[in-house]
Amino acid sequence: MWFILGMTSAAVSLAPIPSSDEELVAAFKAGDVQAFDALFTRYRQPIFGYLYRSVGDAAVAEELAQEVFLKVFQHLRRTSNHLRVHAWMYRIATTTCIDALRTATRRPVLSQDDATLAAAPAPTSADPVERQLQREQHREVRRALNALPASYLQVLVLRQFEGLSYAESAEVMGISVEAVTSLIHRARQAFRATYSRQQQEEER
Amino acid sequence: MNDAHESLGPLLSAYLDGELDPARRRLVAAHLATCAICTQELAQLRAGDETLAGLQPTPMAPDLRPQLRRRLRRQGAPIALTGGIIAVIVLLLRSVAHDLAIVKRKDLPLWGRLGIASGNVLLVAPGIALCVELLRDVRMLVEYAWLSDETIDSGGPQP
User: Fold this and answer.
1) Which residues does A120 contact at the CB level (< 8 Å), separation at least 6?
2) A 15-34 residues with CB < 8 A to B
3) What average pLDDT does this structure show over A52-71?
4) ipTM reported for the complex, 2 dp
5) A41/B157 CB distance under 8 A
6) In chain A, positions 103-162, which contact chain B (CB-CB < 8 Å)?
7) Is residue A157 a contact partner of residue A54, using CB atoms and an 8 Å limit?
8) Rounded Cα–Cα distance for residues A50 and A188 (Å)
9) pLDDT by residue (tens digit) across A7-34?
């Protein structure tokens, strides 16, 4: 039986490498594990970036990204033939991230820890003063984002940084477009209010 | 004006993002021309977006494959164990069906024996199908997590 099961894989491996997400999923369902690796290569940076934007910590984002791809490997074979791969990947990342954000043991790491907030990517400017300003700005924005409820944070990241449309965000979050419209508005208001409050506290 | 303010205010983000249909976009635009509060709110939303843009770019993703493979390897044992248990249950069910030997009874009419035989097949077939599925899972898992390190890492398909 092992031989029979392996034949499908060998046959698929010799075929030309598929290019679209859907073709890769079909190849994986037929037993080609290299198709999974191609999907992994394609989505590794976007999913890691999305998770990093969501949690603000590279180590936590890395751990969550592993979890996401583990779930993808486990469930991809049993998905519908009409699967929208891009939205599905982000959906898995979103649920994984929201679960992590809601876990009491992780929350303190993600909230207001100065060491985590300071461990930001290198600022882009060459001017030292400008670099310091960029670093400060990053720290303040990150602090405000981390103080938001998980659903506000997710929808803001999906829209503002990942560039997903309202319809795509709704599909990823498993809610209606109307609900996303309202959620994005409330999330923006909450971010602005939190950021302003922080600025006022800093000035005191 | 209050009604319009309350119903159109929550649409300001969608207006800003270009996510409204033409009819609602015209409604919001007309409302903005007459409502100072919403005009100010829209300006604040834009300012908030500019603030968010102050976040630094994301770092490059690390190569997650080694850790992913390690975690997948840990998944292999439970899946194989589940498959084994199901296989044993299927064999037991087959054995029970065989022991009953109803199919071989000559005192039953042919349609009765065929019916019972079909029933036995229906009883065992889902278990066998599940075993095959699990075996495929295990095979793909083994192929990716144990055997494919070199082939994939040294030139697997690139997008």
Assistant:
1) A135, A138, A139, A142, B56
2) 17, 19, 31, 33-34
3) 92
4) 0.76
5) yes
6) 120-124, 134, 137-138, 140-142, 145, 156, 159-161
7) yes
8) 18
9) 444 444 455 565 899 999 999 999 888 8
